[in-house]
TrEMBL record:
Broad class of where this protein is predominantly found: membrane
GO cellular-component term (any): dendrite
Keywords recorded for this protein, A-Z: Cell membrane, G-protein coupled receptor, Glycoprotein, Membrane, Receptor, Transducer, Transmembrane, Transmembrane helix
Record field: transmembrane: 20-44, 65-88, 108-130, 151-172, 202-228, 271-295, 301-322
CDD domains xrefs: 7tm_classA_rhodopsin-like (cd00637)
Name recorded for this polypeptide: Trace amine-associated receptor 13c-like
Membrane topology of this protein: Multi-pass membrane protein
Organism, as annotated: Cynoglossus semilaevis
UniProt keyword Ligase, yes or no: no
């Protein structure tokens, strides 16, 4: 077998293009690491981290942090190496199948980490949606249904399942290798060719978009249910304020007692924005994977698809900083502490 070698065009591999790509990667890595360090610090030093929702936020930030610490810096190192050195590194592209004495392929670590962190992100967003929907639909039973132990258990399950799925092409098939792709500038699964044809088990890569879109579909369905309930409660509150209902009749009293809090409603809206952002960032790479299985390479598009998904790792921090007032307050308290230490 031989690997499906990526196309390397002047547009994707020229010196100027590589330089711009490296500057972009370094900026993105800095934004991901700094943003998620702030998120984790705020979560650890405030009471938010000791709640089920806090556990889920920490899980999401940890997955994003791993992308910024491992995945992006490796691409930066490889691109700088290719620009400075006249020859590529020994492990570079296809060398892992050319003999038995080749060095260890770093993409065997970096590739599954990126795929696994992506699956952790969408599964965590799904769990956050479920947690907020329970708070909105059954606010009186939220504390008994969503407990700390159950949340930690589901967080652990999401990490284990996500990384097992990330390794599925290597576990269930011997016709895949992980190598650095000059087009996407990342470690990608590369199917081996039998003659000029892809082997039948190459379709196992479709597990990746199938898993993500299944969870995204379920997340959208739960969000629709939650927002429908929020809209119903908003209408009832408006009628109560106008005097059309009274607390003793029409179910107004019961509705008021079971009405979700303002923080639950705002958190549900924030998670809805997170879901939309992840869907927008994942859709291009799903199209690319489908085309790759069929036999297309799409060199320039692959860079756009993979790095748009990578950029989502710093979007979560931006969304929280804009939407979550408690998070902004935690950041201000953190900065105030850092400024007060030198003065004291």
């Amino acid at each position: 077998g031989r690997s499906l070698a990526p196309l390397c065009t002047v547009c994707s591999c020229g010196f100027v293009n590589r330089t711009l790509a490296v500057v972009f990667m370094i900026s993105l890595a800095f934004a991901i690491v700094v943003g998620n360090v702030i998120t984790l610090t705020v979560m650890v030093q405030t009471r938010q981290s000791r709640s089920p929702q806090g556990y889920l936020k920490v899980s999401l930030a940890m997955a994003d942090m791993m992308v910024g610490v491992l995945v992006v810096p490796f691409s930066v190192y490889t691109e700088i190496f290719l620009m400075v050195m006249s020859t590529p590194p020994l492990w570079y592209q296809g060398s892992s199948i050319s003999g038995t004495d080749n060095p260890w392929q770093p993409c065997m670590l970096i590739g599954p980490v990126f795929a696994g962190c992506t699956f952790v992100s969408i599964s965590t967003i799904f769990l956050m949606t479920l947690e907020r929907s329970i708070a909105i639909l059954w606010p009186l039973h939220k504390d008994t249904v969503v407990t700390h132990k159950r949340t930690l258990f589901f967080v652990l399950i999401s990490w284990v399942v996500s990384f097992l799925l990330a390794l599925a092409p290597l576990i269930f098939s011997s016709n895949f290798i992980l190598e650095y792709n000059e087009c996407s500038r990342m470690c990608n699964y590369t199917p081996l060719l039998h003659g000029k044809q892809l082997r039948s088990d190459a379709y196992i890569l479709l597990l990746f978009p199938a898993f993500d879109f299944t969870l995204l579909g379920a997340t959208f369905a739960v969000n629709v249910l939650s927002f429908t309930t929020i809209r119903r409660y908003s209408r009832k509150r408006k009628l109560l304020s106008e005097g059309s209902l009274n607390e003793g009749g029409g179910g107004g009293g019961k509705g008021c007692q079971q009405r979700p809090s303002f923080s639950d409603i705002k958190a549900a809206k924030t998670i809805g924005i997170l879901t939309f952002a992840f869907t927008a960032s994942f859709s291009p790479i799903a199209v690319f994977v489908l085309g790759n299985v069929v036999g297309y390479t799409w060199c320039n598009f692959s860079f756009f698809a993979f790095w748009m998904l990578t950029g989502n790792s710093c979007c979560n921090v931006i969304i929280y900083s804009v939407r979550d007032q408690r998070f902004r307050k935690g950041v201000m308290l953190l900065l105030h502490r850092e400024q007060s230490h030198p003065n004291s």
